[in-house]
Amino acid sequence: MGDSRFGTQCCYLLLLGCLLFFRAEGGSIPITIVESAKARGAVCLDGSPPAYHIDRGFGSGINNWIVHMEGGGWCDDVKSCLERKNTYKGSSLKMEKTMGFSGILGKKQAANPDFYNWNRIKIKYCDGSSFTGDVEAVDPKTKLFFRGERIWQAVIDDLLAKGMKNAQNAILSGCSAGGLAAILHCDKFRSLLPQTARVKCVSDAGYFIHGKDVAGGFEIENFFGRIVRLHGSVKSLPPSCTSVMKPELCFFPQYVAKTMRTPLFVINSGYDFWQLKNIMAPSAVDPKGNWKSCKFDLKKCSAPQLKTVQDFRTQFLNALSTGAGSKPSNGVFINSCYAHCQSGSVATWFADKSPVVGNTKIGKAVGDWFYDRASIQKIDCPYPCNPTCVKVDSDS
Questions:
Q1: Which end of the chain is more exposed for a tag (fewer CB within 10 A), N or C?
Q2: What is the CATH number of the domain that holds 289?
């Protein structure tokens, strides 16, 4: 059986992100239900049609598009998928009818100078597989649909028909599980848009590494393997990766990024708290809870534990350098904040007190990279060196 805590913790983090959205800019962008998707079997876990929110572009941004994929963990077995099925993470029937945008999706020029007037879309996440599942059969007992890949394609087709087919500039982005999805679908997204368009991808807190845990194993590989098998994700993963290694390894960005053709920007913390909790010290390999205090608050780590944390950061940087960081067209912004998802809130994107690395804020770094104003390779010094980090309530 899978450890559904891997998924539920991400859900709580996304709830926190949603609260930050409303605090920052408010807004009431209505939900769009893609009813036509049902005919092609592109449905949420419960069989309901997929959905997204769209705020139309204006002025100079009318032909520019940013498609942001919502995160929220994964389900790796029937039990954990059933737990999601009747929630907003598994059914469009349970989703909020309106939502606010902020950060990379914000509409205020001062808070989002490069993308504020683009067509800005958030794809709702209701499949539990980072939009990769595609299983035709439906168990009559559970009535679970594993159709994440079809959802992605149906929503993208809907947006293409609404004008994205004429895009001049476009970004596929996402946070957490959505940030992983942005990497897995990046080249596919590029192929659907005009060759004359500038198209790039941005992954926020989605660069999950094939990292060694405190027991010396790779529990995260087991977890990702269960997701890939349950959701039938193999045929949806980049073939340039699956042709040379085990499919579950192609759920790890460090291996996919090596063969990507489309430019990618990675926003991540070197101490991403989801990864520390679930890759470095997952509960499955820490039955006595020796790591509980440390992984929830780095100030409570013992000296040996903090060394392990710093070693995990080294693992992360190595996975980055051999993957996304190995291509000059890619950009990276790796700070030392104890954080997870930093593009969705104005507080961490482009506010007066937003985190900086090399005197550069995240929003400025992404804009400079997208428009080729500068090459961006920002890697912070080790924790606790950065005084600009925004405090995040991570006890969720």
A1: N
A2: 3.40.50.1820
